[in-house]
Each structure stands twice: as C-alpha cells, then as structure tokens.
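Structure ticket #2291
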Amino acid sequence: MKKFVFIAASILFAVHALHAKRQEVFGRSFMLIRPASYNIAMNEQLWHNFVYHKTGPDYGAFQLIPFYQHSNKRNKVARYFLINRKNELLVAGDNTEQGLVLDRDIRAEWLNLASDFSGKFSICPEQKQMGFTFMYNQGLEKITDVEFLKGWNIGIEFPVLLVENNLNLSQRDLSMTSTEANRQPDIISALNQCDWNYAKWRPKAKTLIRPEKIKFTGGRSLMHRDYFQLASSLSFTIPLTKRPDAEYLFDTVVGLDQHVAMGGAIHMQILLNRDPERIAWTFFANLEGNFLIRNRQFRTFDLKNKPFSRYMTYTRKNSEPGEVIPGANLLTLETIVRPYGIADFSMGWRINVAPFEFELGYDLYGFGGEKIKLRSSPIESPFNRRCGGLNEFGIAGTGSILNNGKLIQATASDSTIDCLAADNTEFVSICENDLDLCSAAAGSVLNHKIHVAAGIESLGVHTEGFAGWGVFFEFPQKNASLENWGFWLKLGAAF
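Resolution: structure written out below.
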C-alpha cells in the first residue's frame, strides 16, 4: 500500500510540474510532426517480456506492429500558421469599404487580387498516418562465447508509413465587382499562384507512402527476475525519406525531415505485490531520447515584426517601374536546421494474469524546437541568379523614384501585410538582419498521452509467442503539434 501511495504521489507531482500556461506561436511556415512510429509505449507493450530475457535456443525475437494515427481538428493548430491570433483571416483591397480596410488582415493587392476584392479564408490542418513497424532483436549469446557480451543484444527496426496531410483550406464571403486584368479570381487561387515557387497553400490532401527509416540498436539486460526488469540500449537511425522542399505549407513528410539520429533508452519495471504467482501487479517506466543531426533545408522567412511579409511583393534595386517579385520566392532560403532532440517517456501499471497482460499508462512526448541559421553569406535566393545579398531588394511601393537620372521602382519600407505605406524618397533595402529566423523554425512541442493496452502470451518449449493491441489519445500542451488518437496491433515471437 505504501508503494502505491508513493508512486501515485510521484505521478501527481510530475503532472503538476508539467502543467503550465498554454503557449502559442503564430505565423510559422513549418511544423515538425511526430511520426506515428515514434511511440515507445506501443513498441514496448509485451515486447519487454521477450526481448530482454530470451530463453529459446536461437536467442532471437521479432514483432510486427500495424498502427493507425489520426489527428483531431483544432483551431489552435490553425493559429500556428495564421496571424493576429485568429482562426480566420480577412482579405480586402484598398477600394473596398472603409470598415473592411480597417479590419483586414491581408491587403488583397499583395496576393494579386483586385483592389475591390474582399473575402475570408481559414484552415484546419489534419493528418492521417498508418503503416507498420518490423522489429528484430538478436541476443549475442548465440553469436559469441565472450563472457562480457552475455546479456547484450543487437536489433533492427524498419517502419513503413503512409502519411496524408490536408490543410482543409476554405474561403467564404467573396466579393468582387471589377474585372481587372491579370488578377487572381479568388483567395485559394491567389495562395497557389504559379508565380510562387514556395510557401503555397495546398487546397487538397496529399498522400505519401514509403519506408521511414532503418534503426540499429544495441543494448543490455541488467535485470530480469520475478517481474523486475531493467535494461538499456543505444541506437543509430538512418532516414530513408526525402527532406521537405518548402513548396507548400504543412506539406506531407514521412519521418523526421531526413535527420540522422543517435539515441538511447532505458526500460524499468518493478513488482508491487508480494505474491505474483496468481496475479502480478507492476509499475513500469520507459524513456527514450534521440539527438537529431543538423541538415540543410529550404525554409521561408518573414521579416521581423512583419508577419506574413513573405506574401508581400519586393523589387530589386534599379529595377524598371512595375518590376516586382513575390516575397515567397525571395525569402525562401537555404538554411542549416538544428532540431537538437526529441524525447518519449512512458510510465504506468501492468497487471499480469497468465497468459494475459493488461496495461494503463501515461506518456509524454517532447521536442525543444528548432534553431536555424542561413547557410550562405551573402544570401543567394534560389529564384534568381546570384546576387549581392538581400540588401539589393526592398518592399515594393506603388510609384517610382529618380535615381542617377533614371526612373526606378520605388520602395515602401514601412508596409505590412495589411497596409501599403507611402513610397520612400530613396531606395530602402532589406538586409539579412531583418529576417525573423523564428518564423521559419518548427515550434517546441509537449504532448501528453494516455494509452490502454492488452495482450496474450503463449509459452512453448522452443518458441514463445505474443499478440496484443493498444489505443492512445494525445493532447498537445502547445499549438505546434497535432491532437491525435490512434491504435496498434502486434504479433511477435521469441525463439
């Protein structure tokens, strides 16, 4: 009874310590989503009884885990990609009603919409993942007689995923009376115009299916006696997928953005009751951490204190009047992405009534957020030929200015996504220091999960088998992640 009180008090203290005011970020152009295969509770259910204490003649074990994960639609996830803390944005031109101009979030002309256009758009990001993971583990007793290596094992993990992302982009209350030439007809078309190479908003779902990674593990069982278990392992993960290309927001990506990872894990189980012959009640805790190696990716930035400035238009110094380029192209740059690490923690209770095992657990998934920096200096924008850097460009105004006896396109440096400022009297450029690096970085994640699982074990003379299932519900504390539910099945054996 004392053990139960102590463990319950510890869990309550941990949950209370993790509880904090919800933290939200806005206007981000990239989100890092947990792959469904990263679920330590799913991987360890039943597996812990076979992989760390093999008794078969070949000291081998495997398991196959089909799984499914689906997100719930939540407004706070939409705010991660939108601005002004809103779930729906108003687009209006300069020639609409004064009330619309004052209340608008986006100036229609920045999106190449007519000056009398007005309308609203919203998103509701949604994701579906399904697939399977195959895991094999081999004890080294079968391979070598070295005393030091007894209790050690090596393993391999190979997941295949189908991922479907859908922004659920929608528009309403569209109004336009003029027929201006070369203008976009509606918001969805404007957010996917062919002149933009990056940062577009895909109106339909996109699906990818491919192997996610290959993960090698090496570990050791430190204790496995009378339901007491203690084991540790190290891992090295090689991604098998492509990295994102920044063409679309919330694009479909399999895995963790092609990051190589090094990790480690520890697994523990302790017996809580004195007589486990008929029923064994245990407490377990599992912790796995992975350090993700940096890589290069293209990301789309905003300017500091100018959210959505990636969707404004820009001009190059000494350009002809009216010669402008999309900000989505100019501000998409090659970066070095440092995601640092992710961690997956699971704890709870197991009840073993041979041949059945039941499990109830609380899980926690965390990611500290990305740190990114520009790869090249001076900056080279992929949309154009090599240039001297961002200081050759400025926010486009409406008029022209005289420079060395030549009329050139004017800049309006005080403009924002909802307002066009007055033209500058001379060319005012942007620079590398004006980039908001956070706008292109994935936000930090802290997800709480609850899972329930059950299974059956069959112990033979030379082969031991098991089968089970589990369900989970995941609740993000921040808006940089999705709220998910899902389930898994599993089948495995030790021989």
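Closing remark: Helices lie at 2-18, 40-44, 48-51, 75-81, 98-103, 187-190, 327-330.
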